[in-house]
Amino acid sequence: MDSALIPEGVKRCPFPRFLTGLAVVGAVLLWGVFAMLLCWLKGLNQTNMNDSYGFALWIWADLAIIALGGGAFFTGFLKYIVGKDELKNIINFAVLIGFICYSSALLILAIDIGQPLRGWHIFWHANVHSMLTEVAFCLSCYFGVLTIEYIPLILENRQIDKIPFFHNLGHNMHEVMAVFAATGAFLSFFHQGSLGGVAGVLFGRPFAYREGLLVWPWTFFLFTWSAAAYGPSFTIFLTKLLEKVSGKKLVKDNVIDLLAKISGWMILTYTIAKIIDTWYWIKYTLPGTGFRLMDFYDDNMLYGLWILVAEIVVGGIFPALILITKKGRSTSSLLWTAVILACIGVCINRWVMVLQVMAVPVLTFEEWALYFPSWQEIATTILPVAYGIILVMISYRYLPIFPQEKELNPVES
Amino acid sequence: MTQEHRKAKKFGMVIDLDKCTGCGSCMVACMAENNVPFRENETDKLKSITWMRVYKLTNGKPYPKEEICYLPRPCMHCEGHKGHSPCVTVCPAIATDYDMDTGIVSQIPTRCFGCRYCMAACPYHARYFNWWDPVWPEGMEKSLSPNVSPRMRGVVEKCTFCFHRYQLALDKAYAEERRELEEHEYQTSCTQACPSDAITFGDLLNKNHAVYKLKKSTNAFRLLEKLGTNPKIYYLSSREWVRRAGDNYRPGEGTGKIKSHH
User: With a threshold of 0.90, does the pTM exceed it?
Assistant: First the structure.
């Protein structure tokens, strides 16, 4: 039925099956949209956030998907700036994931603010001292860059490509893509960092506060580093997942191997930096505040020392050690384990840097603040996931996302 | 009228916890003065708006050695380092500001778009979010103060040291061709409402104001002084455990003294 739109030389599932899948995910999407409208129309009283938990599930989701979407800028940086040409076979997918992650992040931010119609105040009345201002500017600009990077992919659709104007536009955009990739990398270094800075500058919150270099706390650099390290692992995870779902090999092993190796070394170096940061914080920053390490990890239901171990050892050292070894990368089960642990690791990091910061009591006569999100918060957090699945489904079906697919899966005529 | 600029001030409070009975008059006066909204059901205190909140502290010992102290907590109007209070620097839209002339941390509700970053930055939980639009019981809207705009849903609000009172007092002084206020001309509503005279308000830099002398008491302390927030609310207590409750201390660490006064 839609065969004219499907790229030549590749096979896709029957249209009714595709439509059924789309309807199922679409139902989840509509549930999320309903919850989103409730939040917009009735206000944030629809959530279980409170005055102690002003930042909650959404902000974690926001930071997590931006970190996971870091594969787009770093893969682009490696391909266009460093010159790792093999990565051209996965860059399209990395861009698509980045586009989904960043558009979702912007949507979440638009839901999360109490007065969405005043969202423009952050640009108009910008406070240059605020890390959030930097986040807003760089995030919006980088989303623009990702859109520019995604457009040539859309133009490669078989029918659109037949129109000379779009064909030439797509070709010319490809020619100058290195400029946008460099711009994207520059913007990403800053907004990933400023997201880390959001927590790191909070000198009233000893769990988050870090010293640093000039105006940037160490978390600024750690967030950029971790996004560059873990983002490619998420790209690999989704590529492998898509291969499982479609039952086809989409990217050659050498490409995955290269990206996994880079991701592994980045995670390893990041984890070492994170350990040094944690040690310095315990040894030199905390004593002046009157807090001990264990003040942040005991006497509550959720935040035990296990979470620090899970973040650094399980989500850092383990995946790094697997990914830097040839055997780890070439053994399917180990590769799967590594990229899943990596994704969990960076998500835990973003979790503690948002939610644990809010939960820890600072005044001596206050208690730990714990909360459980309302269904509206959960639905609006799932909304971007459903939106992402739909966009991947449509893009994979109608666009030549994976250049090696045809070669790896020859269709018998 | 002289053309000289008024001297910069640092308005602050000294709250004598030995005098506070925990009656809550300061909280009620604050809400009435500043049109602070409330809901029919206020059982969820994490969603209640209390610019002035009275905490109940105990020494943690069992009866009969148990002691209780009530601690009123307005906004600390932190100066931080040279005006870099924790909440002011983080606000992305300059909806809150540190006024170098008065030392007051202001809030502009009509500019705030409700990101709540300032709330995350404030270790005192002195900032409150309007989770709902304010709804006043029928007839009560007639008793609202005309000097303070009620805030709408989705923005942050907090104690302003009754800044509107300062403006009114200045207006009156200007009309009388004066540029400086007497100590009694600008007082916050909580100060005036306290029946046990526990709250003293004034210019921390003015030697003629009571707060100037009181802040130098050996019993004075500030909340979370170690964090560098540099608050302008001083507390007095003759009890060591109360002063110690003002900050976090490692085991074996002695209770600290105020290192640098305003």
Answer: yes
